[in-house]
């Protein structure tokens, strides 16, 4: 009995150590969110790293492929799962005005997740860097099963213990250079190549 008790204590001690970050603080599993790689949840001490940024990007595109296999990609669902609070708030305000016919905005038809290629996609490579203020930037090179290639560039914010996509950068696709800026300009009534329009219905982003 005494030997069994010692074994149980040792096991509990190991488990407790496994729930510590590098700094010795307990990991709050609710803050880890969906950030996983090889089925191992990254601890908070690992989040401020290139590896964590790229692991979350891979999680995003795993979900793209899962949705595709299940019958169709839900862009709004992907945005709600993986985008920053600021992005989602801006999107919500913009769509409310679209619903009320105050502005017209067709969006980018999902280009920010699947840039003109088919699904399923594979990630050829990711190039990312950490910026100041809990921000990162990443470029992602994708390929579909037919060999078509796509490229995405994005900004990410570290929010509530997970990396969230805040903006997509593409000067060839988005007026004003990024999706976030484009949405903001349309919301502000300046969405057509930077020219102010007198009528709200003329605020159509080409």
Write a structural description.
This protein is α+β, with helices and mostly antiparallel strands and 206 residues long. Helix content is 35%, strand content 21%. It contains 6 helices and 6 strands. Helix 5 packs across helix 6. The chain is globular.
Fraction of helical residues: 25-40%
- List the uncertain runs: 1-44, 194-206
Distance between the termini: 76 Å
What is the structural class?
Answer: alpha+beta
Mean pLDDT: 79
What is the N-to-C order of secondary-structure elements (H for helix, E for strand)? HHEEHHHEEEEH
Total number of helices: 6
Biggest beta sheet attributes: 4 strands, antiparallel
Summarize the helices and strands and which ones pair or pack.
Layout: H1 2-18, H2 29-32, E1 36-37, E2 40-41, H3 50-69, H4 75-82, H5 85-99, E3 121-131, E4 135-144, E5 149-159, E6 162-168, H6 179-187
Antiparallel strand pairs: 1-2, 3-4, 4-5, 5-6
Task: Summarize this structure briefly.
The protein has 206 residues and is α+β, with helices and mostly antiparallel strands. Helix content is 35%, strand content 21%. It has helices spanning 2-18, 29-32, 50-69, 75-82, 85-99, 179-187, and strands spanning 36-37, 40-41, 121-131, 135-144, 149-159, 162-168.
Output the keywords.
alpha+beta; disordered C terminus; 6 helices; single chain; two-stranded antiparallel ribbon
